[in-house]
Amino acid sequence: MNGKKLYRSESDRMLCGVCAGIAEYFQIDATLIRLAWVFLCCFGVFPGVVAYIIAAIIIPTQSAVQ
After folding, report:
1. Closest by alpha carbon to 24, among 42, 4, 44?
2. pLDDT band with cut points at 50, 70 and 90 for residue 30
3. Which Pfam family would be a valid example here (predicted)?
4. Interval 34-58: pLDDT, tens
5. Are 40 and 47 in contact (CB under 8 A)?
6. b/e code 22-37 from CB counts within 10 Å (16+ = b)
7. How far is residue 10 CA from its own chain's centroid?
8. Closest Cα to residue 28, out of 59, 50, 36?
9. Which of 48, 49, 45, 20 is nearest to 34 (CA)?
10. How buried is 12 (Cβ within 10 angstroms: 0-12 exposed, 13-18 middle, 19+ buried)?
């Protein structure tokens, strides 16, 4: 295993830090994840708000992982 861990960011957060944590995990810009999330929520591809809330509950914070 490569040692990467998924967590909610505490430094680069807009709401709960979910998008920033996902972006850090995949090593891409957090803005791209945020834009994709908004795009998918607006066009009804999946229930994005519910998925964000679930992710915010399930994914631990950065300090809890380290």
Report:
1. 4
2. very high
3. PspC
4. 998 888 888 876 677 888 889 899 9
5. no
6. bbbeeeeebeebbeeb
7. 11
8. 36
9. 20
10. middle
CA dist., res. 34 & res. 26, Å (int): 13
Neighbours of 47 (CB within 10 A): 12
CA distance 4 to 57: 20
User: What does each C-alpha distance from 19 to 1, 44, 63, 66 come to in angstroms?
Assistant: 23, 18, 16, 19
Mean pLDDT lowest for which of 1-5, 41-45, 59-63? 1-5
Provide the 3-class DSSP secondary structure of residue 26.
helix
Per-residue pLDDT tens for 11-29? Answer: 877 888 898 999 999 999 9
Q: How far is Cα 36 from Cα 19, in angstroms, rounded to an integer? A: 10
